[in-house]
Amino acid sequence: MWSSNDSTEVAFLPIYLVLGCVAAASAVRHGLRGALGHISLVIFCVVRFVGNLLLLIAAHTSGDVKGLVIAGFIMQGLGYSFLITAMLSYLSHLIRDMDRAEAEPAEKEAGGKRTRIERILNVVNIVALVLLIVGFNESMGSISTSSGALNMQDLNVMVKVGNILYLALTVLLAAIAFMHIPRISTSRQKLLLYTMISALPFMVVRCVYTVYVTFQGNPRHGSLAARIVCQYVMEVIVLIVLGVSGLLLPRQGTPHANPL
Questions:
Q1: For the chain, how big is the Rg over CA atoms in Å?
Q2: What are phi and psi of 60, to 5 degrees?
Q3: Contact at 8 Å (CB) between 138 and 156?
Q4: Which residue from 119, 209, 198, 196 is spatially nearest to 163, judged by alpha carbons?
Q5: Residue 257 per-residue DSSP state
Q6: First to last CA, the chain
Q7: Is residue 46 predicted with pLDDT exceeding 60?
Q8: Distance between CA atoms of 151 and 155, rounded to whole angstroms?
Q9: What are the E-state strand segments in the chain?
Q10: pLDDT for residue 199 is more than 90
Q11: How distant is the alpha carbon of residue 233 from its chain centre?
């Protein structure tokens, strides 16, 4: 018998496929050199699709399904890492575009500092991902099945720390984006920055919700409506914003353009 959670995960499978195709179109349009952010979006869609599929299989399989549950949760947590990677790509291109436009020694030095900040943010992203993977693996002993329903009673503290790091990283990215508003000097910079500003609030909502349910002890805990809105819909909005932005940005080789 299918639960409401199962129906929700099935409903979003074709959505991930469609949005993955949009991201792939953006990646092809800009070529490998300029499509890092869009390739990350394609990977995100694939990972979320597989994660949902694994949880569905686990929910309707008899016997020991702990491995499938862990893999499904890891896929869902790992997916957000690729959204962060895409956003970091936008930030990197934005900062370099602004520095080239200003082309002053002081700004070039500042640009070097910002590059170091980007590297630090990438490291935090990787650390959060590792914490989620290890934490979910350590939580395997807490998974039980009851009446066909999956229940994870107690998550390892590393899962909680990993999700908190993602929330902090997302808020920091939003703050950095808003700090760069006064530096906008071209339409391309405006599109890059406003794409970030448009997408990041939805990512913050998604992270706040994830932290909340993690501390409740079960990633599928609480209201299904809240889960649909605060997790699935937030992610879909971010994918749409970044996907459309990729289609609007000028392609590689366009004069005075530095496409993603």
A1: 19
A2: -125, 25
A3: yes
A4: 209
A5: -
A6: 45
A7: yes
A8: 11
A9: 143-146, 149-152
A10: yes
A11: 13
CA distance 138 to 216: 17
Other beta carbons within 10 angstroms of residue 86's beta carbon come to 26
Residues belonging to the chain: 260
Integer angstrom CA distances of residue 51 from 3, 44, 54, 176, 219: 17, 10, 5, 31, 13
Pairing of strands 149-152, 143-146: antiparallel
Q: What angle do CA 29, 30, 34 make, to 5 degrees?
A: 160
> For residue 173, what are its two tokens?
């990215």
Q: What is the pLDDT of residue 149?
A: 46
Q: What string of DSSP letters covers 157-205?
A: HHHHHHHHHHHHHHHHHHHHHHHTGGG--SHHHHHHHHHHHHHHHHHHH
**Residues 1, 98: Cα–Cα separation, whole Å:** 55
Identify the residue with better confidence: 110 or 24. 24
Q: How far apart are CA 229 and CA 236, in angstroms?
A: 10
Question: Could you read off the pLDDT of 84-93 as tens digits, one per residue?
Answer: 999 999 998 8
CA distance 92 to 176: 11
Angle at 46 between CA 81 and CA 25, to 5 degrees: 100
pLDDT of residue 248: 87
Taken in order of first residue, the domains within the chain and their CATH numbers are 4-144+153-248 (1.20.1070)
Beta bridge partners of 144: 151
pTM, entire model: 0.85
